[in-house]
Amino acid sequence: MTTRNVAASDTFEQFRVEFNELANDVVTILEPQTVKLPDRGSGDIGLLAVGDGSDLQIFHDGTNTRIQNTSAIVNTSELQIRNNGLMRLGGTSFVIGNVGGLETMIDATENGAVQLYHDNSVKIATTSTGISVTGNIQTSGNITNGSVNLTFPTVGGAISTEGFSIALATALG
């Protein structure tokens, strides 16, 4: 913005011109701005860094757009996104993983499964008919259903609960 000076000896017309130019400067400042960053030579648009140590970074690497918290305070700094209303994340698939990108925690696909992971192994997945669980189910309350159908991949099996157990055998024929 240009520095504007109006001296006491200026005429009303000079004052009016300076005032109108100042008003135009204010309007320009208040209008939404697009910031274009210089190309870093790899076809991306550059890097926007904010914070004392440039901790918050938004950049495009030529293929992916990234929002990154590079704080030196490992495991204690947070990237928080807050909203007082509905928050939407959109895409044909949505993955939450660890910082190195080597482990998946949640994987959701449009018109498909939502998978929850433990130590990079799928433990719960939605299917077109319900859910699939890999591993044991532990509950502190009741599981209620109109009917129960248990299928075991091997011959026999057992169901154990507090106070009693049921041995299962495969019926032949």
Question: What would you say this structure looks like, in words?
Answer:
The chain has one helix at 12-30, and strands at 46-50, 56-60, 65-69, 93-97, 104-109, 114-118, 121-127, 130-133, 157-161, 164-168. It is mainly β and 173 residues long. It has a domain at 90-134. The protein has a 5-stranded antiparallel sheet, with no helix packed on it. The longest helix has 19 residues, at 12-30. It is elongated and about 90 Å long. The termini are far apart.
Descriptive tags:
single chain, 173 residues, mainly beta, five-stranded antiparallel β-sheet, three-stranded antiparallel β-sheet, 1 helix, 11% helix, elongated
Question: Summed up, what is this model?
Answer:
The protein has 173 residues and is mainly beta.
User: Radius of gyration from the CA trace?
Assistant: 31 Å
Proportion of residues in β-strands: 25-35%
Instruction: State the total count of DSSP E strands.
Output: 10
Q: What's the main sheet like? A: 5 strands, antiparallel
Class computed from helices, strands and strand pairing: mainly beta
Taking pLDDT < 50 over at least 5 consecutive residues as the criterion, the unreliable ranges are none
Mean pLDDT rating: 74
Shape: elongated
**Portion of residues in helices?**
10-25%
Terminal residue distance: 89 Å
Strand order in space, largest sheet: 4-5-6-7-8
Describe the SSE topology.
Blueprint: H1 12-30, E1 46-50, E2 56-60, E3 65-69, E4 93-97, E5 104-109, E6 114-118, E7 121-127, E8 130-133, E9 157-161, E10 164-168
Antiparallel strand pairs: 1-2, 2-3, 4-5, 5-6, 6-7, 7-8, 9-10
